[in-house]
Each structure stands twice: as C-alpha cells, then as structure tokens.
Design goal:
heterotrimer, A alpha/beta (551), B mainly alpha (319), C mainly alpha (274), A: 551 residues, alpha/beta, Rossmann fold, six-stranded mixed beta sheet, 21 helices, 20 strands, globular, B: 319 residues, mainly alpha, MetI-like fold, 77% helix, 0% strand
Chain lengths: 551, 319, 274
C-alpha cells in the first residue's frame, strides 16, 4: 500500500461526477455532449467494484476519471473524485502524474497495443515503480518475477527479457496485470481485460487476475460488458446506461434479485425459448469431406470436414479463432474452392467455384455478416440494399419492389420510414436487421450467419437472435450459424459441430453434443463459458485441474 | 543482427539492383521512342544526307536497339559513359566535377533541412491544433504550392539584389576555400531547403502523431510519466523508423529540386548539365545523367526501406 | 444544399480566385488590353497606368501576356490532368477488380516508371521528342497517370474486400455492377480531392518544364515560360519574372484550398465512409 495506509476504510469516493466532451458533427457547429450524468460511487480498500453496461454507457470514462484522465478531449466538468481522502481533481497536472502509476494503475483491453513494441517487457513492467521511486530496480524486478509466477506465466524468470510481440495475447494480458500490480497501487482499473481473448484463454486470465487481486489486497474497478464475467470477480456491481446509474448493489443481489428492469434484461439475456428439432432423414445441404487451404495449398485450414444441414433447422458451428469455422462458410459459398470433397445441395453437387454456380443456386444460399456496417454499401439506401436481390433474382421493379421491401421491413420489425435511409443513419441492431432482410429478400433455403451477433451489445444481440428464430418459423429457412459464443449456441441450435484447428471434433444433435461424456476439447470449451453464478470460476478451474491431473 | 533482418535487407538490395537494371532499360528505351528517325529529328529537316549518315554512325543507329543497349550498359558498368555529341568530350570526365558540386549543394541543403524539419514537426505535434501548429501547417501547405523558381527568385531578389549579401549567381571554381564556397551556395542551398522543408515537416508531423495516438503512449501517460518523458522514452523509439523514412524520401525529392535550382543560380552541377544537353538533344549525355539521377533516387529509397526494416523491433527480435 | 455562408472562408477565397483565373483564361482576347506578341513599349518598363504590370523583356505588355499565359497554362494543365486521370483511374480500377496477371503486370510497370523522378524521366523523353503541345500533354499525362493509378487501385482494392462487395459477388452480380454501383460511389471522394492535387502538380510540372525551356515554345508562353523570359531582369532589380511565378503559386494555392474543402465536404455527406 502506498503511504502504508490502513487496510480498511474508504479508498475512492466519486461524488456527482459529470463528464462532457465536445463533438464536431460534420457540417454543424461543435457541440458539447454529456457522457456521464452525476454518477456517484464509493469503493473500499481491497474491494472490487464491477462497472457494467453496453457501449456508450460511460463505464470506461468513469474508470479513467479515477486517474484524472480523459480520452480524446473528454473533460471532467463537475463533481469530486476523492482518492485516499483528497479530491484529486484539485491536484492539477502535477498531482495527476504523482498518483498515476503509483496509487492507481490501469489494465487496458488490448495489451498487445498497450505495450510499447520497442522495449522489453521487464523495462515496461518496472517503469512506474522506478519513476515514482517506490522501489529500486532490483526490488522492482524481484517483485515483477514474483507476480509473473503468481499470474502463472511460463518462465517467470525470463519472460521479462522478451519483447511484446514475442508473447501471446493471453500472456500479455497477464503481464499487463503484473505491470499494474508491480508498483503496489491502492487501486487498479481493469478495462475489459479479457474481452479480446478467446473463451478458453479468458478463464485462465480471469482466474489469474482474481487470485492476484485477492492476494495483494488491491482494490479494483472492473469494467466489462459481460455480466457473467464481472460476477466472478466483483464484490459489488454497478449497472450503467447512457452515462447514468441504473442499479448498484452486491453481486449476489444484482444477478439473483435485480430490482431494475434493465438489469433484469441483462441478467436473463441468454434465456431464449427454443425447442430442439430432431434431424430429418434427407439433409438439404451436405458438406462432404471438404479440405480447403489458403496460399496455394500451404496452410490447410479445413481438414476433411463433413456436416449436414436439414431443412428449416439450425446447425451451429462453434470454435475459437483459427478453428476454421469462417473458412467453412467460404468453402460452402464457393468463395474458397475446396481442394477435396464436395458440397451437395438439394441432391445436386454445387460448383466448386462461385463463378461455376448458376443464379438459382446463388439465390438459395444467402449470407449475413458479423460487421453489418461494412456489409452494406454506405452509398445505397435501405430500399436499394433490400430491393436489389428482388430486382436481381425476381425481376421486381418500381412499386411492386417497394411493396415487398416494406413487407420485409415489417418482418424485421422496422417501420416503413426506413426505406430512404442510409446505413450511417441506423443503429447497430437496425443495420444487422437490414442485412437479415436483404438475405430474406432472395427467398433462400439456407442462410449462413457468420458471427452475426458478436459485434452487438448483449440486449441487441438477443433481439436479433429472437428475430432469426421467429423468421425461421415463418420462412422455413435453415441456418448455418457460425459463432464462438456457446451461450448463443445453446439458445438457438438444433445440431452443433465443434471445430478445433480445422477439424470437426464433435458433431451431432444439440442434446447429444451437450451431454457427457465429452472429448477433451469440447469439455474445455464448455467449461470455459462464464455462467452467471457466483463461484462458477473456482468450480470450473477446479474441474479442469482435476481433469488435467487425471490425464 | 539476426538472420531475418539480414535476409530482408539482402532481398531489398537485390530488388534495388534489379530495379536499376530495369530503369536503365527504360531510360534507354525512352530515348528511342520517337517514331521515325532519331537522327533526322535531332538535326532537323535541313540536315544534309552526309551529316545524317554521320550521326547515325555516331549513335550506332545502324545496329538493332538491343545491341546498342548492351553496348551502352557495358560501357556504363565499366565507367565509360560515352562521348557527348555536342562537344565531343568524354562524358565521365565532364560529370565528375559537376557531380561533386551537386552533392556538395545537396549535402548542405540536407544538413539544414533535416534538423529544421524534424524540430518544426515536433513543435507542431507538441502544440497540436494550436495556432503554432496551424501556422506551420498553413505555411507548409502554401510552400508546397510554390514552384521552385518562385522561391529561388524571391531569395535572389531580396538577398542578392536588394541587400547584396550573397551572389545571385553561384560560381564555384577550383581552389575556392570552403568559406567562399559556402557563401556561393548559400542561396541555392536555402532555396533547396525551403523546397523540401514543408514536405518533410508535414510528413514528420504525421509520423509522430501516428505514434502519439497509439495505445502504448496512453499507457505511458497513465504511469504518470511527464509529457517529455512520454515522447522521449515511448514515442521517439517508435517514430525513428518513419522519420528516417520521411527524411530519405525527401532527400530523393531533393534530386529533382536540384535540377531547377541549379538552373536558377547557374550552378555548375549535374542538373544544369542535364538541362543544357536536353535542349541540345544530346542523347548520350541525357542517358548518362538521367541514369545517375535515377540511381541516386533509387538508392535513397532503398536506404529508407532498410532503415524501416532495421528499426522494426519485430524483425530485430524474432519470435 | 450548398449554402454559401457555410463555406469556410479559406475555401471561399480559393473558389473565387480559381474562378477568376478560369474566367481570365476563357475570355483572354476580350480582357487583354494588348495582343499577346504585340510590342507596345520599352524593355522592362515599370508598372504604370498604361501598363499595369509593366512590360517584359521585349517590351510587350506584361498584363496582356499574363492573361494569355493563363489560357495556355490552364489549357495544357487541364488536358494533361484529364488524360492522367482517366488513364490512371480506369487502369487502376480494372487492375483492382480483375487482379491476376493483368494487375501484376500493370503494377510492376507503374512501380518501374515511378522509380525514376517524373522530371528526370520527362527530360529524358523530351530530349528526343518534337517540341509541341501534343507531345507535352501526352508526356505530362502519361507520367502523372502512374500516381492516379496507384491511388485508385489502392482505394478500389480496399473497397473490393469489403463485405458488401463480397455480398454482391455472392449474389452473382457482374463486374459492371460491382465497379459502377458498389466501388465507384465509395471511391469518389478520395479521387475528387486527388483530382485537385493532380491539377496543381500538372501546373507546377508544366511551369518547370517551360522554365527550363522545354515546355511551351516562344512566342507563346505559359507562366513558367514567362519567368524564363524575364529572369535575367532579376539581377537588375526588375521584378517582372516574379509576377508570373507568383501567379502560379496563387493558382496552386487556390485549387489546393478548394480541393481540401471538397474532400471534407464529400466525406461528411450522408452515408460517407468513416
């Protein structure tokens, strides 16, 4: 503890914090917008407060205000930030510099970008301690090595010799945590520290952070959009929305007995009613022993993959980054012609290359993308975007086309007024809905959904999933649903294929795939998905350790 | 230095040599593109048949183009640049002194321009969006719109005619002392400096800004480092490579500026020599001098690339 | 809609000056007080009521020659820019969309041309080509099209990998729709501002060539050529050469200001990228 203060009592007391920024809308006079509206919070020494909310909730902005820092022209215009008994906002520039890196440290979302590529890790880890004179170099390095060990980094003695690019993303995130802990601060601000990681990596980093917080008695503000994650590490949770406080309470109360409707919606976000359908007898689309590679056959990204999709059903393909799940979609659509194997649709083999496929085949297979922003031409109106497939496949023109576009807009639960809008004028969820409408316009039998909800906030994503399920009922369309998110899979799939390094390691109906006994990878994947339950993390880690000890 | 760097640098140099060869073909071809008879075009309609035949013989026009090319290339590689048609002098001999003069001029322009541009770039970044930055950027924008001779003659008009501090014509000859020489080239060097300064400054500013907006600079600020320490320890090491790159690219730009500036100040260098002989349609000289300019330009570009390779920590410390 | 009060002051100045230059060029014979080659007085007369800008090295009215010079300068620069732009953009777009050996061949050729400074290559070529306007426009246009090629190819390649272009390909659209409906509308704003820069570059390049005696041939003269004609006066304190030089700078700056504003405006249009 800096200044050797007592271990109990109030550490951080933020009162009526107001944060503003000036925005420069094109073609208009600059205006001031308020990002945080009079938010107050307190944090005791050694406690962890989770700040949760969707994008734009102001959670990072509040977190950084405890260091007196505002990103890109953001200003603290009202309230007090009292740290260790003094209002830091009155300390001026010099005061901020003295507390940053000493009393308060920061762990960023992307450690890969937050480390300077030109310096060795150790130099960066001990930099703050040396700067503030809290330790000699030898002491600081000793402490750093101990922290590396505590955070279960490989080769703790020598990892500091490495440069950032020589270390993996999950390890780098732990090194960043060690960097924050090294100067023995009173408070650490964790800003989405595990969001950029794969799910099986996330659990390790999360456990490491939790252990480190417990053992060093440091207080923390833990910022995330994932309630299940924050439930594992926090003592209390504060729910924020549009820069305002929604609800603040103990972790158990928030996740078990939420008092506000919004919190309740966040808690129950993954509960979607969907009855699993049993596979039929004749598949609509069969992927048969497909092997595909990039770079002229050098990098095999799909190895002998076979899956079936039945009419009107959903096949979910799950895997982490690099598992080949998106490549499978490219092979099916013909964007990446397979080296071996074939794709059979409605009993006929599809052409390997996109250019070999007739228009009718293209019409039957539509695709929805992860980033709706870049999946729509920014210079076309919603009417053109949805209307083009109608025109292209069915020759619809003029009023007939507009009528159908309006029907489709109704189907995706958007009003008629959107037909003349440009994509830039839509919200993230609306954009994805328009993309759905565009694919429906072609009246396809199969839609490939490539991570369609992973760029969206949980509630919006939830709405999209429900819409997709409803549309499946109405239009009798099948989905190939590609995702890394097992929670989504559980809610909407009829059958599941688990992919790992280009291979399907487990495949079958949903109930079969999710019922033990599991293979090692599926078990790892399933056990890594955070559940909204206190103590889940410890259980999951214990379960894995037993298993690895058993092997 | 570890192996991937050596390999990359070797590759870049090999590529550069290949490029030089291709450029020599291009320059040679560039003087052959005229439809019809080069000799006729050079001498004009009034040429006598004898003089035409003579010129054809002299240019080797009776041989096919590729043989002439290899003959020329062989000469260049052994230091024989041929003889000038207009004067009959050996080109290599005439060039020697002039090349040295040009390098001398460019050297002093670079010595002034590089530190000045980097300092101004740093100031612009430090006071980003303030009036200093806007002033510097505005002046830079304006001066990129100025033709070289405008800058040159303004300098002459003010410093040589109104005040007579420096000569308007930069005569240099053998036996001049360094001081005399420097005074003689003061105005052309100043003109060249101004020509490249704006570009170099703007690119330096952009390069540093790019680094300043990265996440690791924020990390450093959040450690409590002072603004100066952030720049020195965290921004600068990563900005070196792009800055070296900027400097080299602009030195390459000097190569072009030098042609015009030498003509303005009647400075006996390569640029003046080239322009004179283009006017005289003296093809062998144009080929030789064009190739030398291109070679310098390409070499500077290669150095810029190599600097970027060497300064990249990812390549210096491979996984 | 375009509201004149919303135009920033810098852009307004640029717009007014550019328009003035263009009007001057178009109506040169009506505006100019004297003929282009008409000798009206003594050599290098100072500015006076009769000759607002004085007279030149042969005793011709400098103002009249400036006005005619604007005509030649703009004429050549506009044609050269049009050539470089259409050539560069068409080749660049097609290279990005078709790819393969066509792209590789074109790109390597452009790399090669760009590895020699434009002025040097221009001088090399002009040493054998006949001195006339067509040659000049062709040489300027072709050499400069390399830069337009690079830009338009880069822009098109960026857009070509966007998901919405992939979506169009998956739909089965032909290359016509993809180039003209998906790529082109999104490539316009960088290209429009590049058009301004290329035009400035053409003006400067032409002036430089004429100044070196390799551009427009006497008795006609563009502004660069006029600098050459009058440069010997400088050492006697006669500023006649500075006037055309300043005009070139003024034209270049004005176009620059307009191009800057157009770029900002088009990117902030509805549905603009970024």
């Amino acid at each position: 503890m800096a200044d050797g203060k007592a271990k109990s009592g109030l550490l951080l007391d933020i009162r009526n914090l107001r944060i503003e920024a000036t925005v420069y809308p094109p073609g208009e006079a600059p205006k001031t917008i308020t990002l945080v509206h009079d938010v107050s919070l307190t944090l005791e020494k050694g406690k962890v407060l989770g700040l949760i909310g969707e994008s734009g909730a102001g959670k990072s902005t509040i977190g950084l205000s405890s260091m007196g820092y505002g990103r890109g022209g953001v200003r603290i215009t009202g309230g007090e930030v009292i740290l260790n008994g003094r209002d830091i906002l009155k300390g001026g520039k010099e005061g901020f510099r003295k507390l940053r890196g000493r009393e308060v440290c920061y762990v960023a979302q992307s450690a890969a970008a937050a480390f300077n590529p030109a310096h060795r890790l150790m130099d960066q880890v001990v930099e703050a301690s040396l700067l503030h004179g809290t330790a000699t170099r030898a002491e600081a390095e000793k402490r750093a090595v101990a922290l590396f060990r505590k955070l279960s980094l490989p080769n703790p003695e020598t990892i500091g010799e490495r440069f950032p690019h020589q270390v993996s993303g999950g390890q780098l995130q732990r090194v960043m945590t060690a960097m924050a802990l090294c100067s023995e601060p009173d408070l650490i601000v964790f800003d989405e520290p595990t969001t950029a990681l794969d799910v099986t990596t996330q659990i390790d980093v999360l456990a490491a952070i939790k252990d480190a917080i417990r053992d060093t008695h440091v207080a923390a503000l833990y910022i995330t959009h994932d309630l299940a994650v924050v439930a594992q590490v926090s003592d209390e949770i504060m729910v924020l929305r549009h820069g305002r406080l929604v609800e603040w309470g103990g972790t158990r109360q928030i996740i078990k007995e939420p008092r506000q409707e919004y919190t309740n919606a966040l808690v129950s976000v993954h509960e979607i009613e969907h009855k699993e359908q049993q596979p039929g007898t004749t598949p609509m689309l069969s992927v048969k022993n497909v092997t595909a590679a990039y770079g002229g056959g050098h990098v095999k990204v799909l190895k002998n993959v076979s899956v079936d999709i039945f009419p009107g059903q959903t096949l979910a393909v799950v895997g982490e980054s690099g598992s080949g799940k998106s490549t499978l979609a490219r092979a099916i659509t013909g964007l990446l012609p397979p080296e071996q194997g074939s794709v059979v649709f409605d009993g006929r083999t599809l052409g390997n290359k996109l250019s070999d496929r007739p228009k009718e085949d293209l019409q039957q297979l539509q695709m929805i993308y992860q980033m709706a922003d870049v999946a729509m031409n920014p210079r076309q109106t919603v009417g053109t975007i949805i209307g083009r497939p109608l025109e292209f496949y069915f020759g619809m023109k003029g009023r007939e086309r507009d009528k159908r576009v309006n029907e489709l807009l109704d189907e995706i639960e958007m009003g008629k007024g959107f037909i003349d809008r440009y994509p830039a004028e839509l919200s993230g969820g609306q954009k994805q809905r328009v993309c759905i409408a565009r694919s429906l316009a072609a009246k396809p039998k199969l839609i490939i959904c490539d991570e369609v909800t992973s760029a969206l906030d949980p509630l919006v994503a939830n709405g999209i999933l429900k819409l997709l399920l409803n549309l499946q009922q109405v239009e009798k369309v099948a989905y190939l649903f590609i995702t890394h998110d097992l929670a989504t899979v559980k809610s909407i799939a009829d059958s599941i294929a688990v992919m790992y390094r280009g291979e399907v390691v487990r495949y079958g109906s949903k109930s079969k795939v999710l019922t033990p006994p599991f293979d090692a990878y599926t078990d790892l994947l399933l056990s890594s998905v955070p559940e909204m339950e206190i103590g889940w993390l410890e259980k999951a880690i214990a379960g894995r350790r037993m298993e690895s000890a058993g092997n | 230095m570890s192996s991937p760097i050596v390999k990359l640098v070797a590759q870049r140099i090999a590529l550069g040599i290949l490029l030089l060869l291709a450029v020599s073909v291009l320059i040679f071809a560039g003087t052959q593109i005229l439809p019809g008879d080069v000799a006729q075009a050079i001498l004009g309609q009034s040429a006598t048949p004898e003089s035409l035949a003579n010129l054809r013989e002299q240019l080797g026009l009776n041989q096919p183009a590729y043989i002439r090319y290899f003959h020329w290339l062989g000469g260049v590689l052994t230091g024989d640049l041929g003889t000038a048609m207009s004067s009959g002098q050996d080109i290599a001999t005439s060039i020697k002194e002039r090349l040295w003069n040009t390098l001398f001029l460019a050297f002093w322009a670079a010595i002034v321009a590089i530190p000045l541009a980097i300092t101004l770039g740093l100031i612009a970044v430090r006071y980003r969006n303030g009036w200093v930055d806007k002033l510097i950027s505005g002046v830079a924008l304006a001066s990129t719109s100025f033709p070289e001779f405008f800058i040159g003659y303004l300098l002459v008009f003010y410093f040589a005619v109104e005040h007579q501090w420096f000569p308007a014509i930069s005569t240099v000859y053998e036996g001049m002392s360094l001081g005399e020489r420097l005074q003689a080239i003061a105005l052309p060097a100043a003109a060249l400096t101004l020509v490249v300064l704006a570009h170099m400054m703007r690119m330096t500013r952009a390069a540093i800004l790019n680094v300043m907006q990265s996440a690791y600079v924020e990390t450093a600020e959040l450690k409590g480092l002072s603004a100066f320490a952030v720049i020195r320890k965290h921004a600068f090491p990563n900005a070196i490579a792009p800055i070296i790159n900027v400097v080299m690219l602009n030195l390459a730009y000097l190569v072009v500026g030098v042609v015009v500036v030498e003509v303005i100040f009647v400075y006996p260098g390569m640029g003046q020599y080239l322009v004179d002989h283009v006017t005289k349609r003296d093809v062998p000289v144009v080929q030789a001098v064009g190739l030398i300019f291109a070679a310098v330009y390409i070499s500077l570009n290669i150095i810029a690339d190599i600097a970027a390779i060497v300064a990249n920590p990812r390549l210096r410390h491979p996984k | 809609m375009l509201d004149i009060r919303r135009i920033p002051i810098a852009a307004l100045i640029g717009l007014v000056l550019t328009t003035l230059f263009v009007l001057m060029a178009v109506f040169a014979p009506l505006i100019a007080p004297h003929g282009n080659a008409e000798i009206v007085g003594d050599v290098w007369e100072p500015m006076s009521a009769a000759h607002w800008l004085g007279t030149d090295n042969l005793g011709r009215d400098l103002l009249s020659r400036m006005i005619y010079g604007a005509r030649i300068t703009l004429f050549i620069a506009v044609l050269a820019t049009a050539l470089s732009f259409s050539l560069g953009a068409i080749l660049g777009f097609s290279a990005a969309v078709f790819g393969g050996w066509y792209d590789t061949l074109l790109s390597r050729l452009v790399d090669l041309l760009m590895s020699i400074p434009t002025l040097i290559m221009g001088l090399v070529v002009l040493s054998v080509l006949p001195s006339n306007l067509i040659t000049l426009i062709l040489v300027m246009g072709i050499l400069d099209s390399t830069r337009v090629y690079r830009l338009s190819r880069a822009v098109a390649v960026d857009i070509n990998v966007m998901d919405y272009v992939e979506a169009a390909k998956l739909r089965g659209e032909g290359s016509g729709w993809i180039i003209f409906r998906e790529i082109l509308p999104n490539a316009l704003s960088p290209l429009v501002s590049e058009l301004g820069l290329r035009f400035i570059y053409a003006v400067l390049f032409l002036s430089t060539l004429s100044f070196l005696g390799l551009g427009v041939q006497p008795p006609d003269a563009d502004w660069g050529g006029m600098v050459k004609e009058n440069k010997d006066g400088i050492v006697f304190g006669i500023p006649a050469a500075l006037i055309p030089a300043a005009a070139i700078a003024a034209l270049a700056i004005s176009v620059n200001l307009v191009a800057d504003w157009v770029l900002n405006r088009t990117t902030s249009l509805k549905g603009g990228r970024g």
